[in-house]
Structures are given as structure tokens and as C-alpha cells.
């Protein structure tokens, strides 16, 4: 009986997330209509971000107009950011950290990269934090990217614990602006939750007040925003 109940609960949860994703799809398409992001071909879902991710990404770009972006993981989000840069003459710099040179070359074979964007390939190595081993970009600790106002975290490949922990290293080693936004993909996973908690503790230790929000569809995304961008948690 218990097993049957568990199976029913699983089906209910699956149907709920599917319904949420369909709703996010509708919200996303309504939001981008007649904007710079309209008619932008994107392969949404599967390995790429889902509709809640792309809706939140669009709103951050469109509403807050970041000027310096660091993106962990080359992919569909890069396409949207490239389109955004084209529409924003005040944009300054977009740095993409990618783990795979072959994927970089394949991407550039079919997609144009804006001249203000740069891909830095850093192969994956294994590191340890609090006794847990995680995937890390090689030499990420040497990265200096001052005045960044938007951090997009969708790489490297996830880990069971402290997944995509490199953002913690970057935030710890760099001088931060007073105001910025961080967007995590795959927040539904335990490893990403662990990392976001450590990031929140780090920002607290730096006396940086932040506001947070999780947006859920088939997958979840998590937003951390300073006071200037606090309405990014109510999109």
C-alpha cells in the first residue's frame, strides 16, 4: 500500500511540475513579444534552461540592463545574451567560461558571438570543499572580472555536492559592486542548494544585504539580488 501511495504522489508531483512549465512557457512568450528577444530561436529544455529560467533571464536583461556579465556555461543562454547586447549600446563586456573546447568550436560553427563577448575555455578539474569533491573550472581562482553586475551560473557539469561552487570562489576573490544579481540554474538539485547557501553566508560575511527567490517549473532557478535589484525576486 505504501509503495502504491508513493507512486501516486510521484505522478501528482510530475503533473504539477509539467503544468507549471506550460504556464511558464505562456508567460515567457507573452513577455518577449515585440521586444528585442522576440523571434530569437532557442532550444529550451532538456540540457538547456527551461522556460522559468529563460523568463527570469529575459526579465533581468530587459528590466535591469546589466553592463558586465559573467556566464558559467556556454549554450542557449549565450544566444539570448548576445541578442540583448546587440540591442544595448551601453553594454560593456560579456565573459563566458566554458569547460569544453570542442563544444566551443561547435557552438561558433552555427552561432555568431558578439564582439563584446569572449569565451574562456577552462577544462574541468576536481576540487574539494568541506570533504566533498566537486567539478571546478581549472584556474578559476585566478579569474578577475571587476564591476560585474550579473552572474549567470549554468556550468560546469553538476556535482552531487557543492555543485558549481566556482561562483563562491569568484565572489570571494573579487571586489564586488554594491549592486548585482546572481542567477542559478538547476536549483532543484541538492548540490546547487548547498552552493547557494554558502554564497549567501559569504555575502552576509561581507555585509551585503540580498533578497532571494526560487522560481520553479520542470526545473528550478534561484535569484540572489542586492537592494537595487530587489524586485528581481518578484518577477
The helix content, as a percent range, equals 25-40%
User: What is the CA-based Rg, rounded?
Assistant: 18 Å
How many DSSP helices?
Answer: 6
Q: State the distance separating the first and last CA atoms.
A: 41 Å
Total count of strands = 9
Strand proportion:
15-25%
Stretches where pLDDT is under 50 for at least 5 consecutive residues are 1-15
Order of helices and strands: HHEHEHEEEEHEHEE
Note the main sheet: 7 strands, mixed
Mean pLDDT, as a whole number? 90
SS-based class: alpha/beta
- Widest β-sheet, arrangement of strands: 3-2-1-6-7-9-8
Q: Please state the overall shape, judged from the principal axes of the Cα atoms.
A: globular
Architecture overview:
Helix content is 39%, strand content 21%. With 235 residues, it is of the alpha/beta class. A hairpin with a 2-residue loop joins strand 4 (124-129) and strand 5 (132-137). The N and C termini lie far apart (41 Å).
Amino acid at each position: 500500500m505504501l509503495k502504491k501511495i508513493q507512486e501516486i504522489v510521484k505522478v501528482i508531483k510530475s503533473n504539477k511540475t509539467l503544468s507549471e512549465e506550460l504556464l511558464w512557457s505562456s508567460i515567457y512568450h507573452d513577455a518577449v513579444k515585440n521586444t528585442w528577444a522576440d523571434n530569437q530561436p532557442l532550444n529550451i529544455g532538456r540540457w538547456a534552461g527551461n522556460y522559468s529560467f529563460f523568463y527570469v533571464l529575459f526579465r533581468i536583461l530587459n528590466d535591469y540592463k546589466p553592463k558586465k556579465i559573467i556566464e558559467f556555461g556556454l549554450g542557449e543562454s549565450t544566444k539570448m545574451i548576445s541578442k540583448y547586447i546587440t540591442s544595448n549600446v551601453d553594454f560593456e563586456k560579456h565573459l563566458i567560461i566554458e569547460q569544453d573546447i570542442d563544444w566551443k568550436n561547435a557552438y561558433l560553427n552555427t552561432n555568431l558571438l558578439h564582439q563584446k563577448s569572449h569565451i574562456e575555455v577552462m577544462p574541468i578539474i576536481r576540487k574539494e570543499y568541506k570533504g566533498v569533491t566537486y567539478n571546478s573550472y581549472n584556474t578559476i581562482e585566478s579569474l578577475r572580472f571587476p564591476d560585474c553586475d550579473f552572474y549567470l551560473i549554468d556550468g560546469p557539469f553538476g556535482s552531487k555536492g557543492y555543485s558549481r561552487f566556482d561562483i563562491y570562489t569568484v565572489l570571494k576573490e573579487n571586489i564586488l559592486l554594491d549592486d548585482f544579481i546572481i542567477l542559478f540554474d538547476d536549483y532543484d538539485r541538492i548540490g546547487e542548494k548547498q552552493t547557494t547557501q554558502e554564497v549567501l553566508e559569504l555575502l552576509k560575511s561581507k555585509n551585503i544585504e540580498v533578497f532571494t527567490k526560487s522560481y520553479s517549473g520542470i526545473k528550478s532557478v534561484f535569484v540572489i539580488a542586492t537592494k537595487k535589484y530587489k524586485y528581481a525576486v518578484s518577477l
